């Protein structure tokens, strides 16, 4: 995974540490994180609770600043990338504004900077079509199910055609059925828009199904323990059939072992660690 | 892939069709709240009737001299002088104010005076809204301002209004800037605003601070500035807090205006009539109650106008349901 510094990666995290000063002492949330997400690449972060996945996402989104190291997004600083609206973000909670209709929620980023008038309305309609909520444009968030709210949030995160998507457990609250449907949709949407994705999840099958690479993290301090590349083969499309193929289960097993094996196993086997 | 999308849309359509049956459904919600609205009116009227019935029952059953414990009267006298019959008080509203020829009907006189007071209270309320929201904005923006201002805002409300009114009036009478001359009604409006701004400042501050971190951070990811965040997030989020604050402010403005009219002796408003008719109570006891009813109706009208505002802004009162 040597990276030529000339190519602009979607996200490049170099030697990042993050510590929080709390009353009960210093919390090492992240230590020595090096990670690169190439343009158009889908990378999942997986690891036990508290290993710093959300913290890493927040650093990339410039909602927090690293204690040490640098975060580059689209070849600029994270702060600049935020100002340039280089990324779209979806949090674990949908975070819709309750007083806005579905359509107005999706339109929010475009109201702040972006197309107006007919172009905006058209874009909103396209996005709602994409997440299959065209019939719900005039509903309010409290009239939607959790899964529908999530899809609105995803449509909103795509509103300005970002080249990077940051998603922190976006399907966390969904039932298995809806979740699988959303995963399939997300793969389709990414294929359509060519966006790079950094995706946090607690589900191994989800990570395997979606990702080009799965980053396995370990807690206290949060570190990247192993990066598992997911190669499903050129002809195997990422659709529902993939879930039943042996290559899928092999990768699930690989990620599970990386997750459970701990650093001892990975060094013993000499698997790529960072 | 397209198959999945169609499937999904079919599921959603099914969900949409099922929605009216669900508890938090839009149709059901509106219908139910319509029913609740009617029920509220029924209960409101029932409440007024109940008060009238209790009034008459007490007047009928209790001794004429009231109920005394030792020397202290704990319940009022029930004589016609102290407690006129409900129907007498209502009938009196339909009679002329005085026996002088061409005198207005009492209710009209009351209504005209109430309108004057309402106008003054509205002016005071408006000032209170501007000052209250202004203070809240300053306090929301700068933590230091909140620490510095909030205690004073609270202390301001402990100043007794009656003591305060004549002072304001005498200060006001000295104000004269060019063509602008301080009017007596402005003193009354100022005192009304003094009572009105407090709940508005506190409510607005709470409302402006109410957005969840997820929403403020969302605005940050959009690189939204202070004003954009204010108008797209903080103000809309503040509506559920502002409405009750505005209603309380309106009620306070009315009370402030009436009390200030009484204590500054301003002519034309309902406060003046309260004093004037109370002075005539020995000869015409039912008449003294008329301005009291007027003041109550005035308060209801003021609060009702805010309720109207609430109906207009109803979509801002939706609470977020996180599934
Ligand atoms: N603002 C903060 N102040 C202090 N400590 C924090 C703060 N934010 C996160 N932490 C700590 O940093 C560590 C990593 O937190 P983080 O939220 O990134 O975990 P996570 O991997 O996202 O966990 P989960 O899977 O449960 O969401 C935790 O130990 C947490 O207590
Ligand atoms: Mg997290």
What does this structure look like?
The complex is a heterodimer of chains A (274) and B (323). Chain A starts with 10 loop residues before the first strand and ends in a 5-residue tail after the last helix. Helices cover 36% and strands 24% of the residues of chain A. Chain A has 274 residues and is α/β, with parallel strands linked by helices. Chain A folds into 2 domains: 1-86 and 162-274, Rossmann fold; 90-158, no CATH class. By secondary structure, chain B is mainly α. In chain B, 30% of the residues are buried. Chain B has a domain at 115-317: MetI-like fold, CATH 1.10.3720. The longest helix of chain B has 39 residues, at 226-264. The model of chain B is unreliable at 1-30 (pLDDT under 50). In chain B, helix 6 packs across helix 7, helix 7 (184-208) runs antiparallel to helix 9 (226-264) and helix 9 packs antiparallel against helix 11. Helix content of chain B is 72%, strand content 3%. In chain B, strand 1 (67-69) and strand 2 (72-75) form a beta hairpin. Chains A and B meet through helix 3, helix 5 and helix 6 of A and helix 1, helix 8 and helix 9 of B. Residues 20, 22, 27, 29, 49-55, 222 of chain A line the site of adenosine-5'-triphosphate.
């Amino acid at each position: 995974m040597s990276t030529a510094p000339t190519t602009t990666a979607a996200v490049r995290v170099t030697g990042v540490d993050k510590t929080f000063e709390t009353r009960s002492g210093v919390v090492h949330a992240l230590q020595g994180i090096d990670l690169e997400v190439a343009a158009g690449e889908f990378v999942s972060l997986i690891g036990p609770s508290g290993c710093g996945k959300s913290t890493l996402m927040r650093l990339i989104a410039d909602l927090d600043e690293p204690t040490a190291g640098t975060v580059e997004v689209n070849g600029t600083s994270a702060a600049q990338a935020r100002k340039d609206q280089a990324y779209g973000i979806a949090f674990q909670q949908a975070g819709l504004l309750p007083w806005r209709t579905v359509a107005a929620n999706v339109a929010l980023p475009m109201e702040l900077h972006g197309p107006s008038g007919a172009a905006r309305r058209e874009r909103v309609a396209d996005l709602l079509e994409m997440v299959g909520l065209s019939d719900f444009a005039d509903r309010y968030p409290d009239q939607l199910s959790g899964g529908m709210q999530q899809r609105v949030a995803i449509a909103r995160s795509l509103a300005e055609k970002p080249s990077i998507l940051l998603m922190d457990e976006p399907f966390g609250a969904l039932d298995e059925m809806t979740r699988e449907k959303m995963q399939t949709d997300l793969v389709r949407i990414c294929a359509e828009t060519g966006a790079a994705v950094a995706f946090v999840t607690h589900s191994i099958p989800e990570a395997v199904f979606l990702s080009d690479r799965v980053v396995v993290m370990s807690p206290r301090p949060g570190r990247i323990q192993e990066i598992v590349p997911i190669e499903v083969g050129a002809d195997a499309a990422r659709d529902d059939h993939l879930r039943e193929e042996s290559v899928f289960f092999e990768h699930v097993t690989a990620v599970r072992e990386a997750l459970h094996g701990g650093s001892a196993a990975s060094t013993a086997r000499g698997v790529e660690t960072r | 892939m397209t198959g999945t999308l169609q499937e999904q849309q079919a599921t959603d359509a099914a969900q949409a069709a099922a929605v009216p049956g669900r508890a938090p459904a839009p149709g059901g919600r509106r219908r139910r709240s319509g029913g609740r609205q009617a029920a509220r009116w029924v209960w409101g009227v029932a409440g007024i009737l109940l008060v009238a019935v209790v009034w008459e029952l007490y007047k009928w059953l209790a001794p004429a001299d009231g109920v005394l414990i030792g020397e202290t009267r704990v319940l009022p006298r029930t004589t016609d002088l102290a407690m006129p019959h409900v129907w007498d008080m209502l009938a009196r509203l339909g009679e002329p104010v005085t026996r002088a020829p061409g005198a207005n009907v009492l209710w009209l006189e009351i209504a005209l005076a109430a309108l004057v007071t309402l106008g003054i209270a509205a002016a005071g309320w408006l000032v209170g809204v501007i000052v209250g929201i202004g203070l809240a904005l300053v306090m929301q923006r700068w933590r230091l301002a909140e620490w510095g201002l909030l205690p004073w805002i609270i202390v301001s409300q402990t100043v007794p209004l009656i003591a305060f009114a004549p002072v304001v009036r005498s200060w006001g009478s000295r104000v004269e800037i060019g063509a602008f001359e301080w009017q007596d009604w402005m003193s009354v409006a100022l005192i009304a605003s003094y009572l009105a701004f407090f709940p508005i400042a506190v409510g607005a501050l709470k409302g402006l601070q109410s957005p969840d971190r997820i929403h403020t951070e969302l605005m940050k990811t959009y690189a939204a500035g202070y004003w954009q965040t204010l108008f797209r997030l903080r103000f809309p989020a503040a509506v559920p807090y502002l409405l009750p604050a505005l209603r309380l402010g309106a009620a306070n403005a009315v009370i402030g205006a009436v009390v200030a009219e009484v204590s500054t002796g301003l002519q034309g408003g309902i406060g003046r009539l309260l004093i004037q008719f109370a002075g005539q109570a020995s000869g015409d006891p039912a008449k003294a109650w008329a301005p009291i009813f007027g003041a109550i109706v005035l308060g209801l009208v003021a609060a009702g106008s805010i309720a109207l505002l609430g109906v207009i802004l109803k979509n801002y009162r939706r609470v977020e349901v996180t599934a």
